[in-house]
Amino acid sequence: MNILIFGAGSVGAHHANAATFLGANVSITDINENQLLYLKKNLYPNRYGKWNKKIDIIDYDNIFKIKKKIDLIILGISPSNHMTVLKDCIKNLKFNKILVEKPLFVFNQRINIKIFKKFENKIYCGFNHEVSESILFVKKYIKSKNNIKKIKIKWAESFSYLLKAHPWIKKIEDTYLSNIYKGGGVLHEFSHAVHLTNSLKNLIIRKKSLKLKSRIVFKKNKNKKKYDILSKILLKNKNFEINTHIDGKSNPPEKKISIYSNNEKLVWERLADKNIEKITIFKNGDSKLNKIFKISRPQDFITQIKFLISNKKKNMNDIKCNDFKNSLATTLLIKKCIKNS
Hints:
The protein is an alpha/beta fold.
C-alpha cells in the first residue's frame, strides 16, 4: 500500500505512525519545510521513540509530479486549506481513496459539488471516533431498539489541552483555532460531536424533518477575529430529540453520549486519562451491562486507516458513515448552527 500524507503536524504524525504500523509505504509532505524538519527531529521521536526511516519526506514542490497510483491520500492540514488541496489532488494525482481530516470543509466556504461528484465515493473524512469499536457497539444497540426518545451528547475539551499536544505553538491566537472563518472554534475543531449528532440521528429518524435550534457563545482573539467556545445543538420533533453540548473549556476532556428509551438508558463515555471507552446500560435504574474498550490516541488512527485500505465489504460498510456525503452534511449542519445563531 502506498500512502501519501499532506501535513507534518500532530495529525500528520499520527497518520504516519498508523500507516507504517500497518506496513504501508509512507510518504509525507508539507508546504512548510521547517515543519517537516521539526517532525523528523522532534515531534515524531518525542511521540513514538525515534524517527522511522521508512517514512519518505517529499518536497512540496514535487508532490503533484508523482505519476504512480496512490492507494490512500491523507490531508492532515488546516481546515481552510482542505478544499484547495483536495481539488489539486483530484486534478493532478492518481489515487484510490482520499481521507480529509475533520472537518471536511469550513462553514463559510463556497462548495461546488460538481467538482467532487465524480469522486465522492473515494472521499472520506477523519471522524475516526465513528468507527471505534465502542461507537459501532452503540450503533448496533440503536438499531436494535424501536423506542428511543432522546439522545444527549456532551463533548467537552479544552483548547489549552490541545496546545500540550502541539508544543511548538504557544498561544491559541497563533493558530487557526481562534478564527471561525479558518476552521477554528469548537464546532469545527470538535466536529466529532456534530458528526455523531448526524449519524446517530439518522439511525433513528432519517427522512422526517427535525426542527433545529442552536446557541453559540463567541469569543474574540487579540486580532478581533471571533471563534465559538460553546455551542449547543438541538434537533427535535414531537417524538424524538437529540441534544448536543460542545465546549472548549474542559480539562481533562469529558465525552459522553446518553441514549434513552422507555425504561432503559445506555451511557457511552470516553475516559482518555484511563485509556478506555466505557458503555453502561441501565434498566429501571439498575446497571445490567458494563463493557470496557481499551483505547489509545494512535489506535484511533490505526483503526480508521485499516478500514480504508481494507478490501473487506464489512469494513467499508462500517466506514461509509464517514464518506463524502455524510461528512458534507456535518459541514452543512455547522453552517446552519452558526447562521441560526
